[in-house]
């Protein structure tokens, strides 16, 4: 075997170093992408839990006959994360108060707002759910006349 044949049978040290460097850079970029996807997955899970909690509290608010739950503020812990929520309810005027007095059957709305907070103090997260809810009609003022009869049902 000649000297030239021995050289062409293997890789040089420089070729091995270049290949290892390329392999190392590829693995490092894969690890960075994987850790980024884990962070995004955790963030999506936190958002989902917050949205589910807000929707659950909205359902409780709408189902309650008395308004005890409105103005509620509390904490819940899920999967090691602390979620704080606050429920507020404010009237949403569609008309001027003068028009409401002239049109007692005019619809009245309220805005139910549910805020859910979580995360660290330096990076707080928030999810907000708004719901426009029609209030029941106000009872008719006693005017001495009977209300009109209900329409017949078939």
Furnish the topology, listing elements before pairings.
Layout: H1 3-7, H2 13-63, E1 73-78, E2 81-92, H3 97-102, E3 109-119, E4 124-134
Antiparallel strand pairs: 1-2, 2-3, 3-4
Pfam family, one: N_methyl
Membrane topology: Single-pass membrane protein
Keywords: Cell inner membrane, Cell membrane, Membrane, Methylation, Transmembrane, Transmembrane helix
Tell me about this structure.
This protein is an alpha+beta fold. The protein has helices spanning 3-7, 13-63, 97-102; strands at residues 73-78, 81-92, 109-119, 124-134. The model has no long low-confidence stretch (mean pLDDT 83). It is found in: Cell inner membrane. The chain crosses the membrane at residues 12-34. It is a single-pass membrane protein.
Largest sheet: 4 strands, antiparallel
Give, in order, the helices and strands: HHEEHEE
List the uncertain runs: none
Radius of gyration: 33 Å
User: Percent of residues in helical segments?
Assistant: 40-55%
Oligomer: single chain
Q: Which outline best applies?
A: rod-shaped
The number of strands is 4
CATH architecture: 2-Layer Sandwich
Strand content bin: 25-35%
Mean pLDDT reading:
83
Roughly how many Å apart are the termini? 108 Å
Summarize the structure.
It comes from Chitinimonas prasina. It is a single-pass membrane protein. The protein has 154 residues and is an alpha+beta fold.
């Amino acid at each position: 075997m000649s000297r030239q044949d021995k050289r062409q049978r293997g890789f040089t040290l420089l070729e091995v170093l270049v290949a290892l460097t390329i392999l190392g850079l590829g693995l490092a970029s894969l690890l960075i992408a994987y850790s980024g996807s884990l962070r995004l997955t955790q963030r999506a899970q936190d958002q989902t839990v917050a949205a589910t909690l807000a929707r659950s509290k909205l359902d409780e608010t709408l189902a309650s006959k008395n308004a005890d739950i409105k103005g509620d503020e509390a904490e819940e812990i899920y999967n090691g994360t602390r979620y704080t929520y606050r429920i507020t309810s404010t009237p949403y005027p569609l008309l001027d108060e003068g028009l409401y007095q002239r049109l007692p059957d005019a619809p009245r709305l309220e805005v139910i707002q549910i805020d859910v907070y979580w995360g660290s103090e330096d990076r707080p997260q928030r999810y907000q759910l708004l719901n426009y809810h029609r209030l029941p009609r106000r009872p008719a003022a006693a005017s001495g006349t009977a209300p009109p009869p209900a329409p017949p049902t078939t």
